[in-house]
Amino acid sequence: MDEVVVTSGLNLQNSVSYGDGFSFTTDEPARLGGDGAGADPYTLVLAALGSCISMTLTLYARRKGWALERVTVRLRQRRVHAKDCAECETKTDGFVHRIERRVAIEGDLTDEQRARLQEIAHKCPVHKTLTSEIVIADLVE
After folding, report:
1. What is the band of 2 on the pLDDT scale with cuts at 50, 70, 90?
2. Do both 23 and 34 map to the same domain?
3. Which residue of 23, 41, 47, 127 is most buried, as measured by CB atoms within 10 A?
4. Which domain holds residue 108?
5. Residue 113's closest CA among 82, 69, 75?
6. Are 17 and 29 contacting, i.e. CB atoms less than 8 angstroms apart?
7. Are 110 and 39 in contact (CB under 8 A)?
């Protein structure tokens, strides 16, 4: 995976550079003090998850020779009290981040194929990353 470099700019804007000369801008919406010049960080997290789900299903269907035509992933993120989280294994004080998603699959597929694709949607690499322990360490040059 290529390195990502984030450089601060005007107000809350950031320039994100990656790969072979690619870049985009991130920002916060005006209601949160930004200029609305780009996606906010949580939108990027959801976009990464949704993109990974779509790509994983497309590659899986392609490998199986299935007639998958389109994948649409709708996602929402919100913080909920941990005690109100029905899916949480441990009930702690404070909040948990809850991501809700809906995966719509289009194509000439059997019910069994659709069910299998819904199972595979939970196995994309970004989903696995977000649901596993994550360690953020200082980069050593």
Report:
1. confident
2. yes
3. 127
4. 41-130
5. 69
6. no
7. no
For residues 53 and 124, the answer to whether their CB atoms sit within 8 Å is yes
If you count them, how many residues does the chain have?
Answer: 141
The answer as to whether 140 is a domain residue is no
Residue 5 burial (10 A CB sphere; 0-12, 13-18, 19+): exposed
Q: What are the pLDDT digits (tens) for 29-50? A: 999 999 999 999 999 999 999 9
**pTM, rounded to two decimals:** 0.88
Asked, for residue 137, whether it belongs to a domain, the answer is: no
Which pair of tokens denotes residue 136?
A: 């953020």
Per 3-state DSSP, what percentage of the chain is helix, strand, and coil (rounded to 5)? 35, 30, 35
CA distance 21 to 38: 18
Alpha-carbon Rg of the chain, whole angstroms?
A: 18
Number of other residues whose CB lies within 10 A of the CB of residue 40: 15
- How far is it, in rounded angstroms, from Cα 136 to Cα 109? 41
pLDDT computed for residue 87 by the predictor: 66
Residues 52 and 108 in one domain: yes
Residue 117, strand partner residues: none
